Amino acid sequence: MNFSSKLIEEGVNAFSSLPGIGKKTALRLVLHLLKQEKDITESFAEALLKMRSNIKHCKTCHNLSDSETCEICLDLRRDKEVICVVESIRDIMAIEETGQYRGKYHVLGGVINPLEGISPADLQIGSLLQRVDADQVKEIIMAISPTIEGDTTIFYISKQLKNRSVKISTIARGISFGGELEYADELTLGRSIVARVPYRKGSE
Question: Is 94 helix (H, G, I), strand (E, B) or coil?
């Protein structure tokens, strides 16, 4: 793609570095911004800079937040005795869209994957165990994508919780094995949360 302006080329390269955006789409976005009033483009850039500079991770559940503790953790109407464990922040957004869950969350930050060098120590498992003890949690819902790595992670966490009086359940397998949680439709995901089942280790 040939550009008449180095500045436009730099803008296109910046947009096309985002996931799912190719050069042609990036060019359309750049040209759209150039058609807008200058203050609109400046507000757009300022919003991105402000977000990047001020966003925080919740000290309790590791969700993204404007403050040290996210709104979900601060919401007294939600059941703190039930924690839904997810891989990523996007999974929280997907589950919240269903409107079927009123407990708290815990973001692991991924799943155990030795091939990619991700061990239990790289995930937020230790802080989960601390929450179980501190908040007298009664149930842990493992809302983790049904993959080999996901099942390995569920198995590992269940072993760590073995001596604690907490119920461990997994979302119902309305989510296909090998599928990504964030791409599940709202109805299927919502039903999977409601119809969660007790977790049983393979050896049992």
Answer: helix
**Residue 146: Cβ within 10 Å count:** 19
Assign 5 to helix, strand or coil: coil
CA torsion 108→110→114→115, rounded to 10°?
180
Domains within the chain, CATH numbers bracketed:
6-54 (1.10.8.420), 64-198 (3.40.1360.10)
The amino acid occupying position 142 is M
CA angle 163, 164, 170 (to 5 degrees): 105
Bridge partners, 113 (sequence order): 118
Average model confidence (pLDDT) for the chain? 90
pLDDT one-digit tens code per residue, 160-197: 998 899 999 988 765 555 556 676 667 667 767 776 76
